[in-house]
Amino acid sequence: MSIEIAGVSKRFGEFVALDDVSVSIPSGRLTALLGPSGGGKSTLLRIIAGLERSDSGRVEIEGIDATDLPPQRRNVGFVFQHYAAFKHMSVRRNVAFGLEIRKRPKHEVAARVDELLKLVHLEQFGDRLPAQLSGGQRQRMALARALAVRPTVLLLDEPFGALDAKVRKELRDWLRRLHDEVHVTTVFVTHDQEEALEVADEIVVINEGRVEQIGSPDDLYDRPANDFVMRFLGPVT
Ligand code: ADP
Ligand code: MG
Description:
Layout (H helix, E strand, L loop, with lengths): L1 E11 L2 E12 L3 E5 L6 H9 L6 E6 L2 E2 L10 E5 L10 H11 L4 H14 L15 H13 L5 E5 L7 H18 L2 E6 L2 H7 L2 E6 L2 E6 L1 H6 L4 H7 L4
Parallel strand pairs: 3-8, 3-9, 6-7, 7-8
Antiparallel strand pairs: 1-2, 1-4, 4-5, 9-10
The structure holds adenosine-5'-diphosphate and magnesium ion (MG).
Keywords: ATP-binding, Nucleotide-binding, Sulfate transport, Translocase, Transport
Protein name: TOBE-like domain-containing protein
């Protein structure tokens, strides 16, 4: 099982954002889409999420052809750089939102929310408003919210980009631990080489709308596919 992207292209007017991209993203792993700004990472993530349609090609998610499915039928959870919380709702209700709109029974929602708040170490903060959390805590809330409906795939677009370096490092370690606990297929976008190399099991290097290489951090360092990958990863420090 995996996310299979086959022959996906996307143009914005004359500009080719993705050029016949085919890549297989393994199931149950933590995969980074890494590359310089403007390379097409977010566009690819949004196509996987169903938030953007490709001009051609196919997207298969865990054995299901998702090419024509709307986002809410893909069973994916997302977290974006700028968290989108309901400001007037408590942390609990923010986390519960996806379950409530699916009309799950109240006791089931309450139990799941308790479990999630514990998972992201926010059990003390359920009654606060999002504005009363730190930036790092808010992103943890966003993670809990994305995981609430037990998605088969978790998608994160520069999830820690807006945070300062120390918190970013903390959350990075924390995403790794969370993934080791939950094992949900996770794809995160980053332009930060160090972040990808430290956190990801697999890295898909994307540049100018094309996949330059896919491999483990060791593969990329020891066997860079081309000059671009070698230059982009830079000297080993
Ligand atoms: P990345 O996430 O790697 O920085 P993006 O996928 O956001 O790159 O964007 C790739 C290219 O496509 C960029 O040059 C960007 O300006 C362009 N692009 C992305 N979305 C749109 C859009 N909705 N309309 C026009 N151009 C877009
Ligand atoms: Mg982006």
